[in-house]
């Protein structure tokens, strides 16, 4: 039996920088795909399907943008960083 | 006759951690599918359709991201947790 | 002549619980379909089309998630309930 | 020459009730279609295309939900009405 | 060589009225298409493709709704106008 | 081995003007495509696919709109600029 998949790395939305927040958005988006399709072999087979498809690449961008909106709000947009 | 489907587990958006909030987002997204298609046999038949389809996996990610945005706001982004 | 369709049940976004808020989101999403396609016979014919289609079930979930975001904000996420 | 299309009826997002706000969301969504396709004859021809298509009905619901989110926020969710 | 495309007319999200804000949303949505496909001849060829397609008209409405949400928030929903 | 792709140029969401904020939204949307499909040759091949497709151009507009919403909020909508 596999362990349950952790959906939020480090169990926190708070990051030091926008760059790290963006990386977290990408990871969180991928982890939803992982929990919906837990079979690594199937996911590996699907990777070139979306990576070579313009329409799906755009759709992934939409999902990451939505995740990032939440993470950016959680971090008060890293306004103190500047 | 089946019981009415509960759409919000525990009838609350508040969770202890981001991880639990994310799990709630996944559950709430699935429960909308359940209430729209209450027949478990049909849902079981549809599962491999979307789990093996890159485009649908991305779309599920978009829906979970939207649900999570609401749950994260409800919990003030778990800022006190850090 | 048919009566105009009421788009917001009880003419309020405020509900006692998250569960009732979620039910309202589902109803409001359905009422937009009703006002766009007022013919009940056509709607009845379309129901199995989307209920048996994985892609459309996911899209319905996306719409409900967006409606729910508004309702949840209106109710301050039912934070006082806990 | 036709007059320019008014995109926001009454030039205001403020409405007395959620019901009126919802109606405004539907109208604003339709007016974007009108300004993009100003030819009434073409729009008339397209109406049954989307009204009989489950997938497009859902997509219309998504757009109305997004417009309504803005209108509801503008009206502070009509919280004073209750 | 062509000049760089200005993506935000007047370099401001602030408008006097909701109507002007809505027009800005339409323009900003179109300018993204322009910057992605800078060839005017191609864009001209694509115009009837989306203007005659119910599904694409709805998708344009979704994009404008999202742009408008930002512009409306920037203007505090023109609440002072009433 | 290639260097890791920087996802947020200058590691900040803060910009001087709405125009610069909009350019950042476009860049951030493109960088997600880049990190999902790191092979420049494949991306180059996909460019005409979406740039000549009305439906994909609209979808890109949707993604940029979502990224811009976050950037605009981060900058308090550049209200002080006026």
From TrEMBL, chains A, B, C, D, E, F:
Alphabetical list of InterPro entries matching this protein: Hexamer_Tyr-coord_heme_pr_HTHP, HTHP_sf
**Gene3D superfamilies per the record?**
Hexameric tyrosine-coordinated heme protein (HTHP)
Pfam families named among the record's database cross-references: HTHP (PF11534)
Name under which the protein is recorded: Hexameric tyrosine-coordinated heme protein (HTHP)
């Amino acid at each position: 039996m596999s362990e349950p998949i952790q959906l939020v790395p480090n169990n926190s939305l708070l990051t030091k920088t926008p760059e790290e927040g963006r990386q977290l958005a990408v990871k969180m988006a991928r982890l939803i795909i992982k929990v919906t399709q837990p079979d690594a072999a199937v996911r590996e087979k699907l990777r070139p399907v979306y990576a070579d498809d313009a329409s799906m690449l755009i759709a992934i961008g939409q999902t990451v943008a939505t995740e990032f909106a939440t993470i950016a709000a959680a971090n008060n947009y890293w306004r103190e960083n500047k």
